[in-house]
Design a protein that fits this description.
The protein is an alpha+beta fold. α2 packs across α3 and α8 packs parallel to α10. Bound molecules: ligand LHPKVLDO and flavin-adenine dinucleotide. One of its GO terms (molecular function) is acyl-CoA oxidase activity.
């Protein structure tokens, strides 16, 4: 039968050791073992089913998410899962929920911005989930412009407290995940006011709801901001609205690693840079880059398997049509995405290392690499999420009409993924940060300060000094071009990190060869996409451009027999993929047919509303016909 045979035969053609590639993708043999074990644990647990998610009402969907989160927590405790295993469990449960913000932002903020005493007080409560926290920064009126936030935290020396207040409608907190219905606490960002003087934005731990009956505490108005894009998708999350009416908190609930307010109301700065108030965003952006490769590889896995099963036109001598994966147009759309998934995986690995390195340095009061870490996390978050969002949509198109069905898994994946281009920093705003960093680096070239890290190449480009002079005349005027320069800088990082990966010891028959092909596809595809820029700047000649394109076509042919094995190496369970088109066994058509009958519309042969709305029309037509 089509599908079973197709994928089995594809697998037999693979020219490399898939099991070793799984290790490379996972990062280590240990990580592969953990991820394999936990993904199966989730797939085999009926509480974690997700096949009806797109058909549930918001209330049922949300309650079901709470049920899953509670069950996940129970399993974590019962099985005594490590932090790594628990994070894998959250990943494979595959449902955005308040837990993400509690573990992913609330706890890291206290760790990064709290003093030793504050950590000792709050972290045990948070780790045991005796309190549940979220990250309340964005307001109705300001998200990107953090320094424009309006919430105030005014010190009252009489009582040794801060008074948290929302002075305007636009100062209402708006968007924080987990805030709407679940969180008992939040890290709230607001303007520190002492003696009528504004000291800018700082973080404060604020209790929002009673730990007894979950009701909002006095002075607090709180709720969910409403349905978001798509069915299922991000609607499992209670993104919230929050207003304060002169809510009092003890002074020691201001996060005081960066600056402290004394009992007398004096502001004391510590030796750490004030930008550490933005530190959680660096951490989460780094996480988002790692997650981009997961979302893209998932879409690519579905589209690749289906492209091998789907046949259209080109009747062959044996009477069967051509697999659509054999069309060069399909390959030229699909294989660069396959290569991007691997490229993002490796740059994500590197970014994780960079983040750990900067953290260790911060502990030792070395702040020198913070600007680069900010630029890299901001830029790569922007590049990888934009490419992944576009890539998922391209995979939907690669699957033709069936890709538009929810049972393909692609519509929900797209809907849940696209806000990544906005949250944790709008992608254009983040690229402008990279552009500023690049301009600053260029401006220091003449002063004898050697560029380091990801900007080391700048020391070799003489024309950059002239660029700097031009940009000095108008950053805003040139910002659209500067954003392109920032993207180019980030692409260079992605390609360099892929090349560095290839320089490591890579065991397994044929594995290195496949990765080399993917790395070359990624680099040449970027060159192809921006051919105009490369030609107009004289970086390559027309002859080189045409050679590069010929090389790209030949690389597609090289990857073609290995395509299915390259997506098998992601080691995704059918539960995680949740796609009829991407099934491991390729049994697409019978399952698509079966799936259709599960739709609630098919519960009855004659639909509800027939007698009310259809029958009268039909009867009317009958009368008109008689007339
Ligand atoms: C059930 C199982 C349970 C177990 C679970 C286990 C585990 C779960 C684990 C994990 C989950 C993990 C992670 C979660 C992953 C995903 C999370 C999911 C969803 C995400 C939710 C999204 C949340 C949010 O969106 S929070 C809000 C984010 N907001 C933003 O990003 C705002 C964007 N704006 C800004 O960042 C800034 O305002 C700005 C644009 C940078 C402008 O800053 P500003 O100060 O106004 O101006 P300026 O440009 O002059 O900058 C000044 C100066 O500072 C430097 N700078 C700026 N930012 C930073 C930074 N972040 N770090 C360091 N330095 C920074 C800048 O370069 C300037 O420097 P200089 O003066 O030039 O030297
Ligand atoms: C699903 C989701 C979850 C979220 N979760 C949280 C959360 O848990 N906690 C939290 O605090 N926040 C959260 N947010 C908020 C999120 O961080 C902000 O929406 C994001 O930072 C973008 O800010 P904004 O909405 O103000 O966009 P805006 O800044 O208003 O952007 C609008 C447009 O203006 C452009 N623009 C803005 N500034 C400039 C500039 N200087 N130059 C050029 N163009 C510019 C942008 O590119 C964009 O096109 C979440 C958002 C979403 C969608």
């Amino acid at each position: 039968m089509a599908g079973f045979d197709d994928l089995a035969s594809e697998r037999s053609k693979a020219q490399f050791d898939v099991e070793e590639m799984k290790v490379i993708w996972a990062g280590s043999r240990h990580t592969l073992e953990v991820s394999d074990r936990i993904s199966r644990l989730v797939a085999n647990d009926p509480v974690f089913r997700k096949d009806t998610r797109t058909m549930l009402s918001r209330k049922d969907l949300f309650k079901n998410t709470l049920r899953k989160a509670a069950h996940a927590w129970k399993r974590i405790i019962e099985l005594r899962l490590s932090e790594e295993e628990a994070a894998e469990l959250r990943f494979y449960v595959d449902e955005p929920a308040f837990m993400d913000l509690h573990w992913g932002m609330f706890i890291p903020t206290i760790k990064g911005q709290g003093t030793e005493e504050q950590q000792q007080k709050w972290l045990p409560l948070a780790y045991k989930m005796k309190i549940i926290g979220c990250y309340a920064q964005t307001e109705l009126g300001h998200g990107s412009n953090v320094q424009g936030l309006e919430t105030t935290a005014t010190f009252d020396p009489q009582t040794d407290e801060f008074i948290i207040h929302s002075p305007t409608l636009t100062s209402s907190k708006w968007w924080p995940g987990g805030l709407g219905k679940v969180s008992t606490h939040a890290v709230v960002y607001g303007r520190l006011i002492i003696d009528s003087k504004d000291y800018g934005v700082n973080g404060f731990i604020v209790q929002l709801r009673s730990l007894d009956d979950h009701l909002p505490l006095p002075g607090i108005t709180i709720g969910d901001i409403g349905m978001k894009f798509g069915s299922g998708a991000y609607n499992t999350m209670d993104n919230g609205v929050l207003r304060f009416d002169h809510v009092r908190i003890p002074r020691d609930q201001m996060l005081m690693r960066v600056s402290q307010v004394t009992r007398e109301g004096k502001l004391v700065q510590s030796n750490v840079p004030w930008q550490l108030v933005y530190g959680t965003m660096v951490y989460v952006r780094q996480k988002i880059v790692s997650d981009a490769s997961c979302a893209l590889s998932r879409a690519v896995c579905i589209a690749t398997r289906y492209s091998a099963v789907r046949r259209q036109f080109g009747l062959q001598s044996n009477g069967i049509e051509t697999q659509v994966i054999d069309y060069k147009t399909q390959q030229s759309r699909l294989f660069p995405l396959l290569a991007s998934a691997y490229a993002f995986r490796f740059v994500g690995e590197w970014l994780k290392w960079l983040y750990m390195d900067v953290n260790q340095r911060l502990q030792a009061s070395d702040f020198s690499t913070l600007p680069e870490a900010h630029a890299c996390t901001a830029g790569l978050k922007s590049l990888t999420t934009s490419a992944t969002a576009d890539g998922i949509e391209e995979c939907r198109k690669l699957c033709g009409g069936h890709g538009y069905l929810c049972s393909s898994g692609l519509p929900e994946l797209f809907a849940v993924y696209i806000p990544a281009c906005t949250y944790e920093g709008d992608n254009i705003v983040l690229l402008l940060q990279v552009a500023r960093f690049l301009i600053k680096t260029v401006s220091q070239l003449g002063s004898g300060k050697e560029p380091v890290g990801t900007t080391v190449y700048m020391g070799r480009v003489e024309q950059l000094m002239q660029c700097h002079c031009a940009v000095q005349k108008g950053f805003l005027e040139l910002s659209a071009d500067l954003v392109q320069a920032a993207v180019a800088h980030c692409q260079l990082i992605v390609v360099s990190k892929f090349i560095e990966k290839l320089q490591q010891d890579i065991p397994g028959k044929g594995v290195k060869g496949q990765l080399e092909a993917l790395c070359n596809i990624y680099a040449l595809f970027i060159l192809h996409k921006h051919l105009g820029d490369f030609l107009s700047t004289g970086c390559i000649t027309p002859k080189q451009a045409s050679l590069a394109n010929a090389q790209l076509r030949s690389l597609y042919s090289q990857v073609r027999p290995n395509a299915i094995a390259l997506v098998d190496a992601f080691n995704y369970t059918d539960h995680y993929l949740s796609s009829v088109l991407g099934r491991y066994d390729g049994n697409v058509y019978p399952k698509l047919y079966e799936e259709a009958w599960k739709d609630p519309l098919n519960d009855s042969v004659v639909p509800d509303g027939y007698q009310e709305y259809i029958q009268p029309i039909l009867k009317q037509q009958l009368r008109n016909a008689r007339l």
